[in-house]
Amino acid sequence: MSSDPVDVLIIGAGASGAAVAWSLAETRMHILCLEQGGWTNPAAYPSVGRDWEARFWGDYSPSPNIRGRAEDYPINDANSPIKIVNFNGVGGSTIFYTAHFPRLHPSDFRVRSLDGIADDWPVDYDTLAPFFAENDRIMGVSGLAGDPGVPERTPPMPPLALGRSGALLGQAMNRLGWHWWPSDTTVATVDYEGRARCINLGHCTPACAQGAKASTDITYWPLAQRAGVELRPHCRVREITTDEYGMAAGVVYYDADGREQFQPAHVVVLACNGVGTPRLLLNSASARSPSGLANSSGLVGKNLMLHPYAQVYGYVAEATDSNRAPPTCLWSKEFYETDTSRGFVRGYTIQFGRGAGPVMEAVTSEAKGILPWGAGHHAVFRRLNGHRLTMSAICEDLPEAHNRVTLDPELKDSHGIPSPRIDYTIGDNTARMMEHGIARAKDILGAMAATDICVNSPILYGGWHLLGTARMGADPERSVVNEWGRAHDVKNLFIVDGSLFVTSGGVNPTSTIQALALYVADQMKQRLANLFD
Amino acid sequence: MTADTPLTGRQTDDLRAIAGMIIPASAAFAVPGADDPAIQADILATLGRDAAPVRTALDRLAHLAGAPLASLDPARREAAAAALRETGSEAVATLTRVVLQCYYRDDRVVRSLGLEPRPPYPRGHVLEDGDWSLLDPVRARPPFWRRA
Question: What is the pLDDT of residues A129-146, one digit of tens each?
């Protein structure tokens, strides 16, 4: 069964797909987005029920392998010390993220020039700056201007309150003379563009029932749909087809009833994240492109970067905010920029967490062996619960070709489409960085006289940031897409998600992913008359 | 074992016994143990996808104990529980988690921690603003991000 062709077909309705849809809508082209998941219902989010914490190990696990919903695709990540986490649905992983919203730094785009490693990006911070600002406005970012650790920016909303945890952490950082600052977040601190302000549900990551956390289902998508973009949920794309000229002809997908469909399109935009996009390109192999679509460089799926997290936490005598506020409150850029005396190049952000809820506290402390079984249980639990503070060093991952996404020869999703397989190891430079981050986090906890120090390095279910698997660049032999997101091999195929990243930086990437998507969309609009030249 | 009762009678008895060993009742803290009937009912009613690994863990416990756990003398009971915990298996971790997650959402237990027995939404929580003057020394620092 076939449909009328659309001008632009976007695959994926998450962070980048929503942004590019909104930006292109002003062209008045016929734009269609196919999303394998559905709309989520805030009334069914975990924080509305008494089992709000338990669902983290069930239907609101960050791991698609554990969630196991029909709209999730399984991922073979057995050969990785970091498991892949994501969310599939309208809004994508913005439904299920901490809302920590830093930008890549200017130096992140120039790592070859500055540090002699990896490659420079074909775009720079200044080029993306207006798109960062536009994205901050639409997503709704809260933060505080004046941070000496990052380029100046003007968040449209005031920052989250420091709370007890932020104050304790700030005091400790001041004792050490180290930088700290309230984080930029996409949590609305005031009523904003139809979103109610945060009321401190505290359980932000697995979806915000209040709607204070920006996810693209409540930010970009209402705007894009009002502007005429068509969004079809529960439609899973199997492959992108090409015509006799090697141009993308459209996609084969399974509709909400499981029926195979063909949707022709003049332009195809991939927005499926750093695992989903290479999976789809590899699943689109043909006689013309036997190693996968847009893969003449052989780089589709390679150079996967995951941002290993080195997490350290401990317990202070004072009461913390625990689970009663957005979990992330501060960042530190003290160790972000390269200082070779540390034994590695590049660096990391420290992300500070306010604490944990009682069930999470009990389960993780028992697993760490600091919460006993038996008679001593209650006294120890009362000393731990509501007293935890967490530091996570989010470490820059460098591109390495052996870290990659391929197709699993056996594993398939609910439509029988081959699933991705992940082969990933943590590089030596990153491993040294993680050790440094652990030591500095212990220094910070020491400055608070914290006890019962625990380390998760890497965070096992911490593969949130899926980057680098279809990198951008000017050289078709060393990149998959060009400087503005168009595939070198297929001139009506664009990529706008984290796959584009040349290097990873040491920050949560969603802000930069969306700024890049807006930049690519802007480039497309400027070149509409000769888009395929 | 039926769809409504995911564990056998023996498994249910052993679950109650091991739960009470993980978290015993405490008069000092005025809380029930995890073997409390209401907490056990919650565990059984919400076992769901965890049922299979919990059965695996309980079967392992039965093997280690050699008899219903509650029937053993205290020393043998403690030894069986310790041996179970030392296996470090995913199944035992799941068993422990389901006990903990149902215990720490029980109204009586939550109140004993000074917390309100309710979901976060819709009332949320109050977050104190904090002392923003703490940022003064950081504000005084010149920009140190690397220009490129």
Answer: 999 999 999 999 999 999
Q: Element (H or E) spanning A363, and its range?
A: helix A358-368
Please give the pLDDT value at position A112: 98
CB contact under 8 A, A167 and B130: yes
For residue A336, which residues of chain B lie inside 8 Å, CB to CB?
Answer: 145
* Whether the predicted pLDDT of B2 surpasses 80: no
Question: What residue of A is the nearest CA neighbor of B129?
Answer: A161
Residue A259: CB atoms within 10 A of its CB come to: 9
Please give the DSSP secondary-structure letter assigned to residue A2: B
> Which chain B residues have a beta carbon less than 8 Å from that of A107?
145-148
Chains A, B: CB pairs < 8 Å: 177
Residue of chain B whose alpha carbon sits nearest to that of A386: B113
Pairing of strands A6-11, A31-34: parallel
Distance CA B114, CA A295 (A): 58
Contacts of A400 (CB under 8 A, 6+ apart): A303, A425, A427
- Specify the DSSP element, H or E, that contains A262: strand A260-270
The Cα–Cα gap between A111 and A470 comes to 18
The pLDDT of residue A1? 47
User: A295 burial class (0-12, 13-18, 19+ CB within 10 angstroms)?
Assistant: buried
3-state DSSP assignment of residue A525: helix
Contact A437/A350 with Cβ under 8 angstroms?
Answer: yes
Cβ neighbourhood burial of A191 (10 Å; 0-12, 13-18, 19+): exposed
Give the global pTM.
Answer: 0.97
Quickly count: other Cβ atoms within 10 Å of residue A442's Cβ: 16
Residue A487 CB partners (closer than 8 Å, separation 6+):
A293, A294, A480, A481, A493, A494, A495
Nearest to A310 by CA among A260, A344, A357: A344
Residue A390: strand, helix, or coil: strand
ipTM computed for the complex: 0.97
B119 near A54, Cβ under 8 Å? no
Q: Say which residue the tokens 């979103």 belong to.
A: A195
Q: Tell me the pLDDT of chain A averaged across its residues.
A: 97
Q: Which residues of A touch B22 (CB under 8 A)?
A: 373-374, 377
Side-chain-side CA neighbours of residue A262 (13 Å): 8
Of B23, B117, B120, the CB nearest to A203: B120
Contacts of A171 in chain B (CB under 8 A): 134
pLDDT of A395 above 50: yes
Residues of A within 8 A of B146 (CB-CB) are: 105-107, 114, 337-338
Nearest residue on chain B to A159, judged by CA atoms?
Answer: B129
Cβ–Cβ under 8 Å, residues B120 and A199: no
For B103-107, the CB contacts below 8 A with 24+ separation are B103/A362, B103/B19, B103/B23, B103/B34, B103/B39, B104/A53, B104/A358, B104/A359, B104/A362, B105/A50, B105/A51, B105/A53, B105/A54, B105/A358, B105/A359, B105/B42, B106/B32, B106/B36, B106/B38, B106/B39, B106/B42
Contact A374 B21 (CB under 8 A): yes
The residue type of A463 is: G
- Determine which of B23, B94, B138, B147 to mutate to test the interface with A (most A C-beta atoms within 10 Å): B138
* Cβ count near B59 (within 10 Å): 15
Lowest mean pLDDT of A1-5, A362-366, A473-477, B90-94, name the range.
A1-5
> Do β-strands A493-495 and A404-412 pair in parallel, antiparallel, or remain unpaired?
unpaired
Report CB contact under 8 Å: B26, A125. no
Min Cα–Cα distance to chain B from A438, Å: 22
Residue type, A242: T
A175 vs B: CB within 8 A? no
Q: What is the pLDDT of residue A51?
A: 97
